[in-house]
Every structure is written in C-alpha cells, then in structure tokens.
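2024-03-11 09:14:02 DEBUG pipeline.ingest accepted 1 chain
2024-03-11 09:14:02 DEBUG pipeline.ingest length=102
2024-03-11 09:14:03 DEBUG pipeline.predict start
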Amino acid sequence: MESLELRPAETALVVIDLQKAVVAMETAPHPAKEVVANSARLADAVRGKGGLIVLVRVTFGPDGKDMLKPILDPGLQLGLAPVRPTGLRSCPSLLGIPKITS
C-alpha cells in the first residue's frame, strides 16, 4: 500500500455544516461538541503547516425555494411544506477563520 503524502501548500481542510443550527442537533456517532473541537484542532494543525481552511456554510433564500428537498424527508413524503431551519450562521470563530464581508 502506498503512503499518503500531504503537501501543506497544496492541501485544504474543507469543513462542512459546522453551523449553529446543525451543531445544536443531537448527533451520532459523536456529539457535536466533540466534532467542533476536533475540527478546530484539525484546522489549527492544517493552518499551522500552511494549509488552507475552507468553511462551507449553507443558507437558503427567504422564500426557501432553494432548500434541498431530499426524497427521504418524511415531511415531504407527507406533503408538508419544508421548514426553514433557524440559526444557520456559521461558527468560523471556533475555527480561527476571520469573518469576510463583501
């Protein structure tokens, strides 16, 4: 088996869904608090070696038309309208990521 070599200048850590609404949920197999702590530790290590940290934040338009509508969503199967989650702000400060405004 070949060994994996990560080159920091060519490596990115992509962190997905560490948003307040998501990490507030009960998660398995690891508690959200543990996932956030481990992600922050990984981000520190990757950043310390010169790697790039990418935080993916999911948000939806005010009308909710761009929300995902998975086939397995029980509410959708019953014909219920999707519920727009609240608190979808990311937690970049936990990962030491500066806030970028445009």
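2024-03-11 09:14:41 DEBUG pipeline.report The chain has three helices and two strands.
2024-03-11 09:14:41 DEBUG pipeline.predict end
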